Amino acid sequence: MVQPSPYRPGEVTRHLAGRQGQLAEIEERLDYLTQLQRLVPRIRIDYAPRGVGKTSLLREIQRMADSRGATALWVTAGETPGLFAALATEAARVLRPVGPRSRLARLTDQFGLAVQVGVPGIASVTASTRAVAVPQPTARDLQDLLSATVEAARDAGRRAVVLLIDEIQAADPAGLRTLSYAWQHLQSEAQDLPVAFFGAGLPESVGHINRAVSNSERFAYKRLLGLSEDAVAVALAGPARELGVIWDDAALTDAIDEAAGYPHTVQLLGDYAWRRAGRPDPGARITREHLAAAIADTRQDLDALYEARLAKITGQQEVELVGSLAMFGDGPIRRIDIAKTLGKTSNDLSLPRQKLIAAGIIAESGYGQMEFTIPGFAAFVRHHYGLGEEEPPAPTTFAAQIARERGITARIKANAPKDLSR
């Protein structure tokens, strides 16, 4: 019997290892919501670079909410113009408001969104074809929409409503303001409305939300870090054990070292090791030899990912910043040390730093620090920018071409780092 791989690189994982702390906090909020039938006062935003497991965490919250009798509304920001329309669409899809007299249907129609119910269990909200102008939703309108959604959920036998917004860095600023002010109204006027809101996004989500709203204290920002060694071991050995396959200790140790806590790498290693073991039957083992071949496969995948990230760098200042950071390693590195290496001030790095954060290449890692978002990227950059002892390859990206032609600031000031009073 050939067993398919239990590892799914790039997909939402069913085995959420290493997030016990986050899940305990979320569980407490969901219990407060469903048992006491109360509003969860603050909006929680988990943020991290891609590949760290934000969407998997949000899907786990969805499962936890469902198991407690709550209706979960899932929205991916940016897919539908405006958060109000996206939430109305999802409420209609999940709760199936039947007929034009339902409160939820009346509210959506008021804003040019026509609720359509066709096949049982399937509903949608589409833009109205009416020629008349419709009002822009306000915080009060969103408050009414949430109240109507709770009402519809209770009619369906559910206890509460949980809003889940993925990719929140793509949310429209007007929608974020409306949401923030609506939550402010709910905190003071409707504490007995059982609604909670969880969001997830890239590191720039924090700045995006703070620029959009004036009452950002309504949001609780939580940085999602890489996995511990124990969590990596669980993430690899657990899914295999469920299928009767055992990882040898030596293979698991090598995988932990190679993964460096990066969840996407963990999934790649697991998937390739499973293939190299021949999609093993129950009773088989994944050995160090299987893992060695899987590491080579994984590194090829990561090189392609590194190339894609490198191709996003198109300016000399970004090239210098990335090259300098690479000389120190994957991070975290103090911003002031990077500035000293380049003979600049910390403020000089602000614009290229923001561009690289937006491109998903680096992330802030504490006050005044930054790091690459993918482990191993520093070594890749050093090689492709010609910052190491080995002969660099022919440039394959515009950034590498810049680095080669312009000497990348005298090979980052003659191969930093030096003693910078760290």
UniProtKB/TrEMBL annotation:
The signal peptide stretch is none
Known InterPro entries for this protein? AAA_16, P-loop_NTPase
Q: Name one Pfam family in it.
A: AAA_16
Domain Orc1-like AAA ATPase positions: 16-188
Question: Mind telling me what this protein is named?
Answer: AAA ATPase domain-containing protein
